[in-house]
Amino acid sequence: MTEEKIKEKKEEKAEKPNWMKMKPAELEKIVVDLGKQGNTPAKIGLILRDQHGIPKAKMLGKRISMILKENNVQFKTEKDYAGEKIKNIEAHSKLHKHDYSAKRALTKTLWSIQKLK
Q1: Same domain, 49 and 105
Q2: Which helix H or strand E contains 87, and what residues bound it?
Q3: Residue 12 φ/ψ region, left for φ over 0, alpha for ψ in the -120 to 50 degree band, beta for the rest
Q4: pLDDT of 69-90, one tens digit each?
């Protein structure tokens, strides 16, 4: 393929598909409402895909987390959830010192936090 064809394909991907009827303002309203209900950005993306037929919110201009930040909607990140899980596993390990599978789960969770950093 020539460079021109590659550039054309990239431009086609960035544009909104013609079958998507939703406008960016409508999408933003839906994302803010779902965020206020306590959904994470990942879950909001799944809801948009499954219920509203939007393959990626980024196609309409912004990422879901950016929309939530602009509208001052608080949401938990993956790091927050991993931190809670670590606290729970550590508390469990203090009570059950011979639970080696829990210690392994703690190690795996710490690995996932390292990846997120």
Answers
A1: no
A2: helix 78-95
A3: alpha
A4: 999 888 888 888 889 999 999 9
- Does residue 103 carry a pLDDT above 90? yes
Length reported for the chain: 117
**Enclosing domain of residue 82:** 78-116
> Are residues 16 and 53 part of one domain?
yes
Q: Which of 46, 21, 22, 20 is nearest to 34 (CA)?
A: 46
Q: How many angstroms separate the CA atoms of 117 and 110, rounded?
A: 11
60 lies in the same domain as 102: no
| pTM (two decimals) | 0.63
Residue 5 has a CB neighbour count (10 Å cut-off) of: 9
Tokens in use for 50?
């499954």
